[in-house]
Structure formats: structure tokens, C-alpha cells
From TrEMBL:
This is Anthranilate phosphoribosyltransferase. Mg(2+) 1 binds at residues 87, 221. Anthranilate 2 binds at residue 161. Homodimer. The gene is trpD. One of its GO terms (biological process) is L-tryptophan biosynthetic process. HAMAP family: TrpD. It comes from the Bacteria. The keyword Transferase applies. SUPFAM superfamilies: Nucleoside phosphorylase/phosphoribosyltransferase catalytic domain, Nucleoside phosphorylase/phosphoribosyltransferase N-terminal domain. One of its GO terms (cellular component) is cytosol. PANTHER family: ANTHRANILATE PHOSPHORIBOSYLTRANSFERASE. Pfam families: Glycos_trans_3N (PF02885), Glycos_transf_3 (PF00591). Its EC number is 2.4.2.18.
Length: 330
């Protein structure tokens, strides 16, 4: 068994790829992995380490083909706020606007209900959805890439993450390792001060256009509660900006207004949202959908994106898409 470096040893991108390759290939003990993940998180991972670790995970994934312009919308998780499934709803809304969405995710690790848990309650057969992901993405413009199906190397890591019950570098690696190899993404992270570090990691990996966002209160998505940090990453460069919900015509609301629960609770809220129920949950989805539509090149600005997202909900298109998706995977 290999011994992992001390956490205070800052790794180059190549060194990080080698270390995480050893972790993913089972060349280190579970105790050593757990110790290293905690120490690394406490010290805070560098952009070079995140990029190198993501490269190791990318090298071991099972890919799918995706239509041109496909995007992913996801959060790193681990923010501790236990909100409703905003990214899940955003994916449906954006796909209903005509943008292919290759949604990459998993069951809950440190939250009450992950995207897979909630979609399953709504009637989506996760095993069938995983097996038909490439087909549904190309036929109806949406799929769920259930992480265990595409990252077999993560099999021995998931129990360790579950036992730790806290965010680690694997929360940061996941969004950078989409099996559809998308070039456009909206990624939410739980640490606003960390946005530029994560943006540098994404810039090292390349891509057409990515927005990395974080609510000031540590939310891993654009927040209605106050301000938001945003990094606009294009290729190897990025620009930092601030974004506020009120600036795009949406009301401020505290995080508690979109507090979620278990999968059944979150599924009920998502169904009501798709049926047009107004309120903070809808506004949070519209704010994040607007960002995703801009990343996709579909919307020209924030208000345009909000309007497009509202139309996708109010016309019933997003709800109809979910029903179609469920039917295709039965």
C-alpha cells in the first residue's frame, strides 16, 4: 500500500493526478484515504490539486456522447443548508428551453436528499435512466448520469465519503468530471471565498464557458438571500463578478425559505414548482436557470434568462418534459 503525502505538502497538478490515481486504483488503505481527505479539506485544496485530481477521475470514467451545446448544472454539495433541489429543477427548466442537459449527480452524501433520491420519488427509474442516458439526452434533451454508473473507480471511495459525512475534494472533482464531457457548465460551490481558486482549477482544465457561483452565506448555488460571488470562466481565463437577485427583478428571501427535507418532501416541492407555484423556490430556480441559459448561449442577459425560464414553467413545458422522461425510462 502506498503512503499518501502529508496534507501540508502542496502538490503540482501532475503530482495530484498521480496521488489521486493511486487512491482511485485502490493502492492506498481506507484509513489513509480518510485521513488525507480530511487534512486536505482542513488545509484547503489548491487549484493545481483540484485540477490534477479531476484529471485522474476523468481518465477512469465511462463516457457517453452528447449533442452539441450540451451543458451540466450542478452544485458541489456539502453546504449544510439542506435546501430544496434547485439544480434538479434548473436542469428540467433549461432542457425545456431547448438546451441539452447532461445532469451528473449522485445520491445524498452529506445532504438529506440528492438529485437521484428526489428524481426516484418522482417516478424516474434510476437504473433505467442510467442505462438509457445517452439515448434520452439525444432524443429529448435531458439525462441523468448516475455517478456510480460512470465512475467505477469511485466504488471504494463512496463508503469513505459517507462515513466522513463532510465535504472533501471529491465534491470539487465531481462537477469537473462529467461523463458527457460537456464544454459548458453552471457549477455552484459552498465557499464564496473559494470561487477564484476553483475557477483557476476549471481554467486549467479548459472548456468553452463555465459560471462558478456561490451565495455569500455559503450556498452552493446562486442565492436570493443577498449577494453572490461569480467567476465567468472562458477557456483558460476567468473574470470575477458580483450578482444580486434584486438586480434582475427577483425578491430577496432568506435561505430558510427554500429549506428542504427528505426526498419525499423535496419531490413534492419540485412537482408544485413545475405546476407553477410561486415563491422563493421558483425565484431561486429562475435565477440559476438564467445563469445556465447564458452559459448555454441561449439567453442574452439575466432578465432575458429569467423570462425564458418562467415561460418554460408556466407553459407546462418543464413538467411535460419530466413526464416524457419518466415514460421513456419505464
Amino acid at each position: 500500500m502506498k503512503t499518501l503525502p502529508a496534507a501540508d505538502a502542496h502538490l503540482t497538478e501532475d503530482e495530484a493526478e498521480e496521488v489521486f490515481g493511486a487512491i482511485l486504483d485502490g493502492e492506498t488503505s481506507e484509513e489513509e484515504i480518510a485521513r488525507y481527505l480530511v487534512d486536505l479539506s482542513d488545509r484547503s485544496e489548491t487549484s493545481e490539486e483540484i485540477a490534477g485530481a479531476a484529471r485522474a477521475l476523468r481518465a477512469r470514467l465511462v463516457p457517453i456522447s452528447a449533442p452539441p451545446g450540451a451543458i451540466d448544472v450542478c452544485g458541489t454539495g456539502g453546504d449544510g443548508h439542506h435546501t430544496l433541489n434547485v439544480s434538479t429543477a434548473v436542469g428540467l427548466v433549461v432542457a425545456a428551453c431547448g438546451v441539452p442537459v447532461a445532469r451528473h449527480g449522485n445520491r445524498a452524501v452529506s445532504s438529506l436528499a440528492g438529485v437521484a433520491d428526489t428524481l426516484e420519488v418522482l417516478g424516474l427509474d434510476m437504473a433505467a435512466a442510467g442505462q438509457s442516458a445517452e439515448r434520452t439526452l439525444n432524443e429529448i434533451g435531458i439525462c441523468f448520469l448516475f455517478a456510480p454508473n460512470h465512475h467505477p473507480a469511485m466504488g471504494r471511495i463512496q463508503p469513505i465519503r459517507k462515513k466522513l459525512g463532510r465535504r472533501t475534494i471529491f465534491n470539487l472533482m465531481g462537477p469537473l468530471s462529467n461523463p458527457a464531457q460537456v464544454e459548458r457548465q453552471l457549477i455552484g460551490i459552498a465557499r464564496p471565498a473559494y470561487v477564484p481558486i476553483y475557477a483557476r482549477a476549471k481554467a486549467r482544465l479548459g472548456g468553452e464557458h463555465t459560471m462558478i457561483v456561490s451565495g455569500d452565506e455559503g450556498l452552493d448555488e446562486l442565492s436570493l438571500a443577498g449577494g453572490n460571488e461569480l467567476a465567468d470562466v472562458r477557456g483558460a481565463d476567468f473574470e470575477m463578478r458580483r450578482v444580486d437577485a434584486s438586480a434582475v427583478g427577483l425578491d430577496h428571501a432568506p435561505v430558510e425559505a427554500i429549506r428542504g427535507g427528505d426526498a419525499a418532501h423535496n419531490a413534492k416541492a419540485l412537482k408544485a414548482l413545475l405546476q407553477g407555484t410561486p415563491g422563493p423556490y421558483r425565484d431561486a430556480v429562475l435565477l440559476n436557470a438564467s445563469a445556465a441559459l447564458q452559459v448555454a448561449g441561449k439567453a442574452t442577459g439575466w432578465t432575458d434568462g429569467v423570462a425564458m425560464g418562467a415561460e418554460a414553467i408556466d407553459s407546462g413545458s418543464a413538467e411535460a418534459l419530466l413526464a416524457q422522461w419518466i415514460d421513456l425510462t419505464r
